[in-house]
Amino acid sequence: MTDRIREQMSALLDGELPQDEVGLLVRRLERDAALRQAFGHYVLAGEVLRSPGGPLASAGFAAAVSAAIDEAPAQADRVRPDAHAAGRWWSKPAFATAVAATAAIFAVLIVQTRVQPPASIAASALRQAQQAFAGPPVVHSSSPTAASSQRLAGYLMAHSQFASPIGRRNVWSGVLAADPSISRVSYESAGTP
Amino acid sequence: MKPMANFPPDDGSMEAQEPREDGSRPASGVEQSDLELVRRVQRGERGAFDLLVLRYQHKVVKLVARLLRDPTEAEDVAQEAFVKAYRALGSFRGDSAFYTWLYRIAVNTARNSMASRQRRPLDYETDLSESEQNAVASRMSHSDTPEASVLSEEIHQTVNEAVSGLPEDLRTAIILREIEGLSYEEIAAAMDCPVGTVRSRIFRAREAIDRSLKPLLD
């Protein structure tokens, strides 16, 4: 046992040993009983200096603790980081994933309810337009009039600012394809951005 | 975590630290060293836990002995506390200092021990058979026997004499470290010498004390 190792041990006791030297020293201490004994003496001396009087742990105390841990391997011989939480069903990954997924779904639903996206507005307008054109088959058996088509065109123009360019294009394509009576509506003339 | 106001660590490390701006106390070198050892235990290095036991065995035994009305069980309860700490170490996240966490386990273990003892039908004060007396004797902690008391006194005397006999630079370094709880850097500033010299002086002081203790303990 060299002085260098014992000096490292002294520094470890004071929390002054560089982290990259700790691992090797711990492993050395693990297999060197004499070194562990010296470590215990260092601790004892400090304890006596700091607080004279009072009971001290006996010389074999640390070894007894080690043996007690070894004697109960069935219960918890190995320390697992998640051992404490192992029995908690709410901490299991599957449950956590399910909670996260549920939260995500709720979040999406809430956002959709509160802020309908422009594409949805356009799609909704398209559905309304198609309903307006198609109408209930029993009540409206004929094709829509030019006036209703103009109202629809105005509606779409008024709302198209909320639609994305692709959405606008799709809406217009659908409307124009659905009613040949609407010859042309100038996109720019509606004053849209 | 609730602070253990009644049981502050007596290594002086608490006093040596300046509080942060947010009021919290920066982790001392010992706390960081403890945390490093804890991480190693969590990775399966059992030897690191043995070092934690060696470091805190006297503190925990003292604490438990103060808490128990019958201090003869101090070592048994302290041992149980360490075993519990080992088993629960996987859940230790380092939000508090390791010794604070360990002391809490020790306090709870002592409380449970006192509670279970109150439920026992047989008290040690009643007449005991010879085998029962032997059982009680075996339960008595080493630190409570008369021989242990004598040994404890001898240890205290030997350590104090060894420190008194140290050269001044070694004595100053070990006192500033062990009693005042200063870091190596603070000791270096106080003694106007390099940190490496402080480390060497403290080590040599410990070696000298160890040489005095060996005949007693081996």
**What is the helical fraction of chain A, as a range of percent?**
55-70%
Give the overall silhouette of chain A.
Answer: extended
Gap from first CA to last CA of chain A: 83 Å
Tell me the CATH architecture of the largest domain in chain B.
Answer: Orthogonal Bundle
Helix and strand pattern of chain B: HHHHHHHHH
Q: What is Rg of chain B?
A: 20 Å
Approximate shape of chain B: globular
Structure description:
The complex is a heterodimer of chains A (193) and B (218). Chain A has nine helices and no strands. The model of chain A is unreliable at 81-92, 115-122, 132-144 and 160-193 (pLDDT under 50). Chain A is mainly α. By secondary structure, chain B is mainly alpha-helical. Chain B folds into two domains: 1-121, Rna Polymerase Sigma Factor, Chain: A; 147-217, Winged helix-like DNA-binding domain superfamily/Winged helix DNA-binding domain (Arc Repressor Mutant, subunit A), CATH 1.10.10.10. Chain B has helices at 29-42, 46-67, 74-88, 98-119, 130-139, 146-164, 168-178, 184-191, 195-217. The longest helix of chain B has 23 residues, at 195-217. The two termini of chain B are 40 Å apart. Chains A and B meet through helix 1, helix 2, helix 3 and helix 4 of A and helix 1, helix 2, helix 3, helix 6 and helix 7 of B.
Quick structural overview:
Chain A is mostly helical and 193 residues long.
Keyword list:
heterodimer; A: 193 residues; mainly alpha; 64% helix; disordered C terminus; B: 218 residues; Rna Polymerase Sigma Factor, Chain: A; Arc Repressor Mutant, subunit A; 9 helices; 66% helix; disordered N terminus
